[in-house]
User: Which sequence fits this backbone?
């Protein structure tokens, strides 16, 4: 007679559950003893003054801005989504940039890796 | 008044909104505007440009990585196109970027950089976490954990943490755009290998002024957090995390960083459905 | 030298937060854009809470879109109500404009702008109903601001002062009188004498409105762009606007006045200089009124 799987695994499963109960209890109890919850209480008052430095610029305002200036690349041509062409000039730039194909090709050639790193360095700094 | 039927205010407003968000400038004034000719076109251009410029400014703050990747000019063109195609839903520009990641995904013109949409999702997650409510975990929660049965308890994550999985090395890319001297060769390698990463984003608990932290989750932690996200009981979550997962270390860090809101009772399986 | 009890204020913007915190200038109030403080948990909320400890706050909204025919956004009103609860502002205001409308099968969108409404019975009914709804929820009266409008409409049943006076009569709301907006509109209409035209507008308002309708005055600078004067809050208050402001104070009595500056922000001291100028104008007007009343007695 073959034993049913349950007969074999039941003792193991029970001890495993006891294990889990035990180590959850141990972990929680030792953190309780450390008083870690109180220690992690937010230091909001201390950081309030710092917020004056990091609060992001207001998103909403009631000024009319540069509606008629074309200084932000928002001339009538880029207004039409049909005219939207991606010519990235940032870190995705095609020249030595990070398109999938270029990433693969660049990696084949150590000299290109070096040239690429220098180009990126210049662009970022 | 002449004998012409009057235009309702509702119709006037619909026509002006159509004129502002349409791709073409209607030559003939609509919405019953008094202005015509050049003056009509200039007035309409003022409204078209103003809304878009405000949105672009806000999007620059919300998507700094995408801005750096595309450069100012292309980013501005992307924003203009997004503004026109997916106009905002809310009168608060803090939410204007909500649909930008999905919009990027639809653009053939950006298909050469298939990780952009997920990088935008990470930027958006960081933006959201920077204003997330603080964790509410208490000593009572910890005591419940010490005394209770893992099969009847669940850990509830705080609204200040978020897990974001991608088929691309989004954390490596995110970090590279914030370091003084990034290792671009390593970034290139990660992209060429199409290295999948799961980002773990959280708002530090002790300092309201600190920027949200962004780290990668290892496989065991990811399984663990996914189980908590799904509202699973502690014992099932530990099972899915596996032997390699160090629960004690994770719990200590979770409490210190404010990743947890509460220890919830899960007596019946149906309770797990209430975790929304 | 700032007076001991100034009436006037400045708009507080993010680039000035630190300088403002360090300088703690003497001001009658500080105005902020409500929507930028809707989230009670972000860094900006901490800034406003700290500023509130030392100053009266005027909450100036840009997103209620009170003139929208499809109504106001209930969720937006709820967020504003929660902010009002937290800050207990001295005034709450927004604009006589629309922004929400159904668009191209996408449901209701929000143009994030202050779009003009017609001065008709129809639009007055819409505006009144929306203002009443918000006031009921906030349990306080609003101030509603007149617009700079780059387009306007052929159909009209009221002049703008009549329209706003009627709005106040029907809803109990006040008027936030933006003198710069009046000037921008006069200049874009190519009025032969823009200052006179703005003063006439104010005279008409004083004639038709319930006394005390105007709860605040806004002053700002504008800039000339391609073919239009744009109300971009980017410059010193222009001399014509100061002249019109003096007239408004004479006709309407002392009203708290605000300097708004949003684009190309100068040093905080420049804004404070403008506020001091407004303060001197109010004081001169007050002194003149006391002298007149003294002579009459």
Assistant:
């Amino acid at each position: 007679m073959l034993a049913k799987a349950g007969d074999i695994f039941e003792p193991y499963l029970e001890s495993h559950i006891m294990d889990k109960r035990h180590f959850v209890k141990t972990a929680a109890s030792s953190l309780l003893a450390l008083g870690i919850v109180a220690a992690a209480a937010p230091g909001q008052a201390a950081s309030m003054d710092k917020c004056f430095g990091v609060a992001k610029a207001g998103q909403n305002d009631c000024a009319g801005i540069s509606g008629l200036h074309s200084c932000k690349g928002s001339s009538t041509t880029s207004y039409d989504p049909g005219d939207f062409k991606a010519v990235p000039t940032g870190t995705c730039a095609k020249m030595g940039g990070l398109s999938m194909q270029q990433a693969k090709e660049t990696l084949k050639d150590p000299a290109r890796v070096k040239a690429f790193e220098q180009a990126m360095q210049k662009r970022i700094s | 008044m002449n004998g012409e039927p009057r235009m309702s205010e509702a119709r006037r407003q619909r026509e002006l909104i159509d004129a502002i968000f349409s791709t073409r400038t209607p030559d003939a004034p609509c919405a019953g505007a008094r202005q015509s000719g050049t003056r009509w076109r200039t007035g309409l251009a003022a409204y078209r440009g103003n809304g878009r410029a405000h949105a672009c400014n806000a999007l620059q703050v919300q998507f700094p990585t995408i801005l750096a990747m595309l450069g100012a000019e292309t980013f501005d063109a992307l924003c203009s196109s997004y503004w026109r195609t997916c106009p905002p839903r809310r009168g608060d520009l803090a939410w204007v970027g909500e649909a930008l990641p999905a919009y990027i995904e639809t653009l053939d013109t950006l298909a050469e950089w298939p990780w952009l949409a997920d990088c935008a999702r990470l930027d958006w997650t960081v933006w959201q976490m920077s204003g997330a409510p603080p964790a509410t975990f208490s000593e009572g929660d910890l005591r419940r954990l010490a005394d209770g049965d893992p099969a009847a308890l669940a850990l509830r994550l705080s609204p200040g943490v978020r897990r974001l999985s991608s088929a691309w090395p989004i954390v490596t890319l995110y970090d590279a755009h914030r370091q003084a001297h990034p290792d671009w060769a390593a970034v290139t390698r990660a992209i060429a290998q199409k290295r999948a990463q799961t980002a773990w984003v959280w708002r530090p608990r002790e300092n309201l002024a600190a920027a949200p932290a962004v780290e990668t989750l290892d496989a065991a932690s990811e399984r663990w957090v996914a189980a908590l996200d799904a509202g699973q009981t502690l014992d099932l979550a530990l099972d899915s995390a596996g032997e390699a997962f160090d629960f004690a270390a994770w719990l200590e860090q979770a409490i210190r960083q404010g990743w947890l809101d509460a220890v919830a009772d899960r007596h019946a399986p149906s309770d797990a459905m209430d975790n929304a | 030298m700032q007076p001991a009890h100034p009436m006037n204020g400045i708009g507080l913007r993010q680039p000035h937060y630190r300088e403002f915190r360090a300088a703690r200038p003497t001001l009658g109030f500080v105005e902020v854009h409500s929507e930028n403080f809707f989230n009670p948990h972000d860094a900006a909320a901490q800034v406003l809470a700290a500023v509130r400890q030392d100053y009266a706050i005027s909450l100036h909204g840009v997103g209620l879109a009170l003139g929208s025919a499809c109504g106001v956004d209930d969720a937006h009103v709820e967020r504003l109500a929660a902010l009002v609860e937290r800050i207990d502002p001295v005034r709450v205001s927004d604009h006589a404009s629309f922004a929400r409308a159904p668009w191209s099968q996408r449901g209701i969108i929000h143009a994030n702008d202050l779009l003009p409404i017609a001065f008709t019975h129809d639009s007055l009914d819409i505006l009144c109903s929306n203002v009443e709804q918000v006031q009921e929820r906030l349990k306080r009266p609003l101030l509603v601001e007149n617009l700079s409008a780059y387009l306007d409409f052929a159909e009209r049943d009221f002049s703008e002062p009549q329209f706003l006076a009627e709005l106040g009569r029907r809803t109990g709301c006040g008027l936030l009188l933006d003198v710069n907006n009046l000037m921008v509109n006069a200049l874009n209409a190519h009025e032969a004498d823009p200052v006179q035209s703005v003063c006439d507008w104010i005279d008409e308002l004083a004639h038709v409105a319930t006394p005390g309708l105007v709860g605040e005055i806004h002053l700002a600078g504008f800039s000339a762009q391609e073919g239009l004067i744009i109300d971009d809050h980017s410059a010193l208050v222009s001399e014509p606007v100061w002249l019109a402001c003096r007239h408004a104070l004479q006709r309407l009595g002392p009203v708290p006045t605000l300097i708004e500056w949003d684009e190309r922000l100068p040093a905080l001291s420049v804004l404070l200089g403008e506020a001091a100028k407004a303060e001197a104008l109010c004081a001169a007007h007050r002194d003149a009124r006391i002298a007149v009343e003294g002579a009459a007695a």
